[in-house]
């Protein structure tokens, strides 16, 4: 015989099926709404199955179960969590989308917990059994969920620290933390007798230190370069000055690290004031680089001269909006010092014309590399 | 039927099925028309892989037979006949060490030869010609960068068929404009993924002129199975002719002809996405296609010299009819170039498929080309859409396309 909880979830499943069918026929067959309703069917059907499995099959008669009108066996703080979620949703609608999304997450999480607790409190007259039933249903969700939340918090705290300290300090800090975790891992693996005792000290202390450092970093704000960059909008197109001289904004804090070498199609080098190019796969210099249309393509620029240089790509010109004003098109790397590298990633939708050929140049250096876009 | 007969009958059925499967697998190896057979290398790179297979596969067979044989023997020897459970011991160090060391030695031998082959296949210093290969749903684009030593003084863009000189070390620089694809001509080399934002290198070389078939080897969406390719190896002299022809200046059809009317239809309907180099508008300005505005991948096949190819629509359909196709496929190596360079003549044109394609392309090849299904593509087509061309327009277009040689 089905009991109250099972009937509830079976009813919810049936209603979801009806709602989905109506939605598919009357509203939109290829919409996210249908997907959400199918998700509801799946969830409700799963909970029906769990309810029948954990309660209906474990009690011999319904009489063994507690009266449905009985009050909850223990105090619950889930209503407060749900209320907090609802408040965050309302607040998020008026302020930041992230608050709204977090509110939805809290609302759904709290609602599920409240619902399952309410159901498990009445699963039978045996409180220990009820607690076990609750753990059976939610244990598999709570631990991974809690771990995910903790991971996000830890990552967030680390990010605050990295944004507050200098780039070099962040690198050293991360290496140290990684080394300490690695060393501790070795110690705990080797000394099993130490594990419980030491973990009960090391973990809370580490978390407390991380929390303090994260909060202090968050309060002290991001490092000066980042604040300046955000205020001055260094990478805004109007600040991208591609001449020989240093640009006031664009060349600040040049990034000379090139991580994605697999995407590089050609390397352009300036050495002894001469520009030369090599294409990947060809072991000789070329004077023309061919780039397929509408294909994200990366060119590596390497400066081997003493003076700072930048690579400029000239892509013809175009009218500005509906006006008759014609502006040159192109972009450039930041100024880069001796032995340093930068990349230009280009996606070019139109080929060059005979009147306006494309090219790569290095201001102040001799020579140019023709750029052909078929 | 008694129990014994039932068991015998059941065993016979199982044995019959197994023999049937084994016979089918064996007979499949005898197929004559199998252009994508990985066991018939036609170039040094594929031969390297084949040589490695010849070493690794016998070892794998021997290991497999020993392991399977031992397993079957143990199943039979120790099956439950009601006997006593043997004494349970813990570990046999000599056996465990042997069972670890022997596979490690076998893998080391295999590993040495495998790594050597991998490094040999990754060699690029001896490249003689470079071709950029770009995958998109669901066709391949080939563009030949400027390489004056091969007579390529302006970039050549083509699709469907990769044309290259036989006996020449070709380096393909692969990438993709949308999702991950994989380039695979089994007779010439192994697979290599084409990944958006990355450039992957693949060596290719054919011993003899000929036509080598391939297939996209990474599931890339609805028409993955129809994303085919053909590599055309020509003698060096024939390749030079092909290059010269691809760079030939565009000659517009004579005014007042059906071809000229077809050019007008092309400009109105096709030039938005497809490029024909040299095509100009009424004011004499070059017509530059803008597939980036209409197509999800940002590209559509360049149709300059379309009729020098034998296929269209991602090599799914032949541009030449069956007889002419057979003439090219069946041509002996020394005559292959001559047969291929004939291109598509009016007599050879596969009118049926080309017209059907122009009439309603999405009906011919599964594509996300229905306007009501374009949500995931940001309102852009994946593949050629239905253009609602009239039969008259199609006649004119076919006449015009036949001039693109």
UniProtKB/TrEMBL annotation, chain A:
The chain crosses the membrane at residues 7-26, 32-54, 75-93, 99-116, 137-163, 169-189, 201-221. Keywords: Membrane, Transmembrane, Transmembrane helix. The lineage of its organism: unclassified sequences, metagenomes, ecological metagenomes. It comes from freshwater metagenome. The keyword Transmembrane applies. This is Unannotated protein.
From TrEMBL, chain B:
GO terms for biological process: ATP synthesis coupled electron transport. GO terms for cellular component: membrane. The keyword Manganese does not apply. Residues 30-125 form the Cytochrome oxidase subunit II transmembrane region profile domain. The keyword Signal does not apply. Its EC number is 7.1.1.9. This is cytochrome-c oxidase.
């Amino acid at each position: 015989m089905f009991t109250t909880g099972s009937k509830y979830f079976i009813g919810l499943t049936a209603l979801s099926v009806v709602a989905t069918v109506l939605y598919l026929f009357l509203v939109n067959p290829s919409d996210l709404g249908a997907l959400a309703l199918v998700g509801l069917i799946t969830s409700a059907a799963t909970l029906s199955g769990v309810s029948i499995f954990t309660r209906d099959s474990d009690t011999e008669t319904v009489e063994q179960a507690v009266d449905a009108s009985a009050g909850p066996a223990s105090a619950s703080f889930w209503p407060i969590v749900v209320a907090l979620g609802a408040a965050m949703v309302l607040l998020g609608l008026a302020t930041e989308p992230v608050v709204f999304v977090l509110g939805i997450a809290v609302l759904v999480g709290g609602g599920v917990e409240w619902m399952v607790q309410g159901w498990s409190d009445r699963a039978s007259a045996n409180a220990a059994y009820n607690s076990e039933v609750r753990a059976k249903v939610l244990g598999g969700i709570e631990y991974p969920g809690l771990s995910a939340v903790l991971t996000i918090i830890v990552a967030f705290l680390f990010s605050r620290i990295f944004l507050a300290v200098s780039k070099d300090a962040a690198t050293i800090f991360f290496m140290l933390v990684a080394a300490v975790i690695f060393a501790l891992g070795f110690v705990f693996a080797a000394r099993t007798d130490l594990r419980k005792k030491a973990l009960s000290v090391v973990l809370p202390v580490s978390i407390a230190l991380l929390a303090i450092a994260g909060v202090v970093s968050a309060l002290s704000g991001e490092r000066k370069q980042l604040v300046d960059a955000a205020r001055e909008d260094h990478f805004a197109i109007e600040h991208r000055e591609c001449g020989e001289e240093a640009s006031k904004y664009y060349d600040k804090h040049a990034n000379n690290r090139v991580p994605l070498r697999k995407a590089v199609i050609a390397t352009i080098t300036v050495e002894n004031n001469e520009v030369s190019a090599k294409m990947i796969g060809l072991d000789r210099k070329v004077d023309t680089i061919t780039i397929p249309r509408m294909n994200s393509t990366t060119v590596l620029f390497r400066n081997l001269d003493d003076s700072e240089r930048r690579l400029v790509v000239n892509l013809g010109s175009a009218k500005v909006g509906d006006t008759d004003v014609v502006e040159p098109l192109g972009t450039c790397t930041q100024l880069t010092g001796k032995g340093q590298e930068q990349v230009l990633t280009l996606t070019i939708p139109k080929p060059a014309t005979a009147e306006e050929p494309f090219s790569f140049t290095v201001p102040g250096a001799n020579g140019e590399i023709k750029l052909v876009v078929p | 039927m008694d129990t014994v007969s039932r068991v015998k009958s059941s065993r016979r059925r199982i044995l019959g099925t197994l023999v049937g499967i084994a016979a089918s697998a064996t007979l499949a190896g005898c197929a004559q028309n199998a252009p994508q057979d990985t066991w018939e290398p036609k170039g040094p790179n594929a031969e390297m892989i084949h040589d490695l297979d010849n070493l690794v596969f016998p070892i794998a067979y021997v290991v497999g037979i020993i392991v399977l044989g031992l397993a079957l023997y143990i199943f039979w020897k120790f099956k439950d006949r009601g006997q006593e459970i043997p004494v349970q011991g813990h570990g046999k160090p000599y056996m465990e060490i042997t069972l670890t060391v022997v596979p490690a030695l076998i893998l080391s031998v295999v590993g040495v030869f495998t790594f050597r082959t991998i490094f040999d296949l990754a060699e690029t210093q001896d490249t003689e010609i470079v071709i950029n290969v770009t995958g998109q749903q669901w066709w391949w684009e080939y563009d030949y960068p400027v390489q004056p030593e091969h007579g390529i003084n302006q970039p050549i863009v083509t699709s469907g068929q990769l044309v290259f000189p036989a006996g020449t070390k070709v380096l393909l620089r692969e990438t993709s404009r949308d999702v991950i694809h994989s380039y695979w001509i089994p007779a010439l080399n192994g697979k290599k993924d084409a990944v958006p934002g990355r450039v992957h290198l693949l060596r290719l070389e054919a011993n003899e002129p000929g036509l080598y078939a391939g297939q996209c080897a990474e599931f890339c969406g609805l028409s993955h199975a129809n994303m085919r390719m053909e590599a055309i190896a020509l003698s060096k002299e024939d390749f030079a002719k092909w290059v010269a022809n691809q760079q030939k200046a565009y000659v517009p059809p004579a005014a007042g002809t059906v071809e000229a009317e077809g050019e007008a239809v092309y400009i109105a309907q096709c030039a938005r996405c497809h490029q024909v180099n040299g095509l100009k508008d009424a004011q004499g300005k070059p017509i530059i296609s803008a597939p980036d505005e209409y197509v999800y991948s940002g590209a559509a096949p360049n149709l300059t010299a379309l009729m020098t190819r034998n296929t269209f629509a991602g090599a799914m359909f032949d541009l030449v009819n069956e007889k002419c196709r057979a003439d090219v496929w069946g041509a002996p190596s020394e005559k292959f170039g001559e047969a291929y360079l004939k291109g598509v003549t009016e007599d050879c044109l596969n009118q049926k498929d080309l017209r059907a394609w122009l009439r309603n392309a999405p009906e011919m090849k599964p594509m996300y080309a229905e306007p009501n299904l374009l949500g995931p593509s940001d309102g852009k087509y994946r593949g050629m859409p239905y253009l609602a061309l009239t039969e008259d327009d199609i006649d004119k277009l076919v006449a015009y396309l036949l001039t693109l040689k």
